């Protein structure tokens, strides 16, 4: 309606709706195929052939005053003290690989479905303006690397080695990785908004200097590195819970089809992750019977010289940043105590905006705030 303050959202064209429907159907059929694949793998991995068995249905993980608070999967027992036979070993390995394929495929569809949902305004408004404060200085510097960025090595340095490690090596849990993923999503949202603003500013510049577009390239590089790092974390922790953004998207339920896909995929991921842990437990017992380490469980890589140098430099930068912030807060508190702000004594009248020269206004508006990204 002319003169109305509310603008109607543009409806998608029939072609767009058709392509969207085809994509949803493809994802749905893919999930059904993964479901069948998981069922076949579960049937293949069974203790009916007598290779291994379980002494009980579960083991008590935590209890209090005789009340069971948490249970976990029981450890398998091999029928032969010499471990599995070659045929039995290959059977367990094959089932584990099929289950892993289910986890990877379902994780990809789950992430695509949730990312296609609109971002809630409440989550967007809760973001901090400074991404460095959100993810920390050390991770901020790691994601700002220009060349040779290795997300796998970064995950190792951050002790996110994966959920399929042995218990004595598992440093970061699923709860820790959710906090990391949540911070990365918030930082990426801030960088995406600043990238759009910077690209608009660059397009309006008539004089292209030597530094033209450098800040936009830096922001795009951080987004690219952060996305690659998140993919590694999801691959290493497939059973991690939803982040705050993902939870809000699913709670809004703006798109029933996408929400159904995400729920279906999430259920497959949880069941497949639990079943794959069972296969790894059987392999663990087999290799323990042979007196050797399980090669199918990831083990932390030892830090190399470059890792130590990178970690030390990042840690030093983090300490310097925190020291600067502490001094800034102390300085601001002292100025407020004596009644002086950043422009002088607060008792003095400040100049109106109209009294400022155009040159000063232009200089202030073009101030580079790349350190606050």
TrEMBL record:
| Listed Pfam families | PRONE (PF03759)
Residue ranges of domain PRONE in the record:
1-296
- Give UniProt keywords alphabetically: Guanine-nucleotide releasing factor
Q: Which GO terms describe its molecular function?
A: guanyl-nucleotide exchange factor activity
Where in this protein does the record put region Disordered? 1-22
User: Under which name does UniProt file this protein?
Assistant: PRONE domain-containing protein
* Lineage of producing organism: Eukaryota, Viridiplantae, Chlorophyta, Mamiellophyceae, Mamiellales
């Amino acid at each position: 309606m002319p003169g109305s303050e509310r603008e109607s959202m543009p409806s998608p064209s029939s072609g767009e709706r058709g392509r969207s429907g085809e994509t949803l159907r493809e994802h749905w059929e893919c999930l059904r195929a993964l479901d069948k694949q998981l069922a076949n793998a579960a049937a293949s991995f069974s203790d009916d052939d007598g290779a291994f068995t379980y002494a009980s249905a579960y083991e008590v993980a935590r209890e209090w005053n005789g009340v069971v608070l948490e249970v976990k999967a029981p450890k398998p027992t091999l029928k032969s003290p010499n471990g599995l036979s070659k045929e039995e070993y290959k059977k367990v390995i094959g089932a584990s690989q099929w289950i892993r394929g289910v986890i990877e495929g379902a994780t990809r569809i789950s992430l695509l479905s949730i990312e296609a949902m609109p971002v809630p305004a409440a989550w967007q408004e809760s973001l901090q303006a400074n991404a460095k404060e959100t993810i920390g200085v050390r991770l901020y510097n790691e994601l700002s690397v220009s060349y040779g960025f290795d997300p796998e090595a970064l995950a190792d340095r951050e002790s996110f080695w994966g959920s399929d490690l042995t218990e004595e090596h598992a440093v970061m849990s699923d709860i820790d990785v959710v906090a990391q993923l949540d911070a990365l999503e918030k930082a990426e949202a801030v960088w995406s908004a600043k990238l759009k603003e910077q690209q608009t500013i660059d397009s309006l510049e008539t004089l292209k200097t030597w530094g033209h577009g450098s800040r936009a390239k830096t922001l795009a590089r951080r987004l690219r590195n952060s996305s690659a790092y998140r993919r590694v974390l999801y691959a290493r922790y497939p059973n991690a819970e939803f982040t705050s953004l993902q939870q809000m998207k699913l709670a809004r339920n703006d798109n029933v089809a996408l929400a159904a896909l995400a729920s279906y995929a999430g259920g497959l991921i949880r069941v497949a992750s639990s079943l794959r842990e069972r296969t790894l437990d059987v392999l663990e017992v087999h290799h323990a019977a042979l007196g050797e380490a399980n090669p199918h469980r990831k083990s932390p890589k030892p830090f190399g010289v470059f890792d130590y140098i990178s970690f030390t430099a990042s840690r030093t930068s983090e300490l310097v940043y925190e020291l600067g912030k502490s001094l800034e807060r102390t300085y601001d508190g002292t100025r407020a105590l004596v009644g002086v702000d950043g422009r002088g004594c607060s008792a003095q009248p400040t100049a109106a905006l109209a009294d400022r020269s155009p040159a000063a206004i232009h200089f202030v508006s073009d101030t580079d705030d790349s350190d606050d990204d």
